[in-house]
Amino acid sequence: MKLNKYINNISGLQISQLIRFVTLFLIGVIFTKTELTITDIGAYEKLLFIASAVSFFWISGLTQSFLPLYGNNKTFNKARAINNEKSPEFFNAFLLIAFLSVLSFFFVLIFKTYLSQLFNNSEPIKHFNLLLIYILISNPSYFITYFYLLKNKPKKIIQYSFVSFSLQLLFVALPSVLGYSIEYCLWGLILISALRIIWLLLFLKRYAKFVISYKFIHEHIHLAYPLILSSLLSGSAKYIDGFLVSYYYDSAKFAIFQYGAREFPLVVILANAFSNAMIPEFSGKINLSSSLRMIKNKSKQFMHFLFPVTIILLFISIWLYPIIFNENFVQSAYIFNIYLLLIVSRMVFPQTILIGLKRSKIILTGSFLEIIINITLSILFINLWGLIGVAIATVVAYFFEKLLLVYLVYKKLNILPTHYIPVKLHFIYSFITFLAYFIVIYYL
């Protein structure tokens, strides 16, 4: 088929992320069209928020560190991976993520009261037991798409994502359509998580060698811990924002913020999937110049498509939000417009180079400074401008981090920004995007 030539690891991962986004987006839209109240939706969002807050950083760190390790580590023979033999790396990565899932489960269980104070104004967290089950079984399956990526099976990535997220849409949204409470939607989320675990076990049975290697686990952790700390610091911005909003406002306002505090999905999907798919290309520095050119050329393609679409969204989002959701979420559009500006940071990929070359500690420096800026500005701006101020602080902090990483890539690796960034094109599009934002704010 003609489409086959367009299906590769990068496009497969991007399609997977797109399917995931469409599913979550449709669930959110369906919720707003049913009998669920905005408070019910806020409670659901808050549970997912807590589950993500205790796991996002180590999932991200383990995933990004595993990509350059597969087939290029000090523990196992590289020839084994090339010859397509069963991989002990897969099994040991699974053990590590399963172990941390259990730790997250007990962390939430032990600090239940403290989490209630942080995220629920000292009120008991509704459906807490369902939250615990979800935390325990949802995280390991996150690796499935990346396992298929490393096995060079992009069609499997797409097949898995289509089946998995179609079932999630059915199991989670259908109860609300039939008039059932949000509790049944949460049970649907748990059911699809359990099915994903079964899929993961079947993958491991076929492709993994069940050998425990403490040496490889140590090597994995050694490469992962700076990325875990970096993800904890940089990614914490989102959760600190959520905490501040939940501290200052009720569940209804929290839902309004969460529905607005979302980047343009195509930007996140294309950028993140491309970045992760490119990481193995830098392993061993064999084709460094070629990999840098690939990033630069692909960045140009992304910019020519994503910046114009972002600018259009800036002008129409205020009208779209009440149509797609309902009138209660008009304020979310103003927050969303600010998050659209994150495209300026997303279209630059110094982190891909650093992770691929196993220089993950450099990223930690940028993340540490970013979180300091974000916390400081968020506390200041929420008192000045409310929910919108929190979003502005996030954009400023992300922008600073990318600038710093670009500088450190040049300073530490002697790689000029022009080698992997279409600098002039990026500047022009960024200027037009900010100009469009201010036109919308001050004139429309």
Characterization of the model:
The protein has 444 residues and is mainly α. The mean pLDDT is 86. It has helices spanning 9-33, 38-53, 56-69, 78-82, 88-110, 112-119, 128-138, 144-150, 154-177, 182-207, 214-248, 251-260, 265-278, 288-324, 330-340, 343-346, 350-356, 360-385, 387-413, 423-443. It has two domains: 1-261, no CATH class; 263-444, no CATH class. It is globular, with a radius of gyration of 21 Å.
SSE series: HHHHHHHHHHHHHHHHHHHH
Gross morphology is: globular
N-to-C span: 47 Å
- Low-confidence region ranges: none
- Give the biggest sheet: none
Query: In total, how many domains does the architecture comprise?
Result: 2
Strand content: under 5%
Count of separate DSSP helical elements? 20
Averaged pLDDT, please? Answer: 86
The helix-and-strand class reads mainly alpha
Q: What does the radius of gyration come to? A: 21 Å
- In percent, how helical is the residue content? over 70%
What's the total number of strands? 0
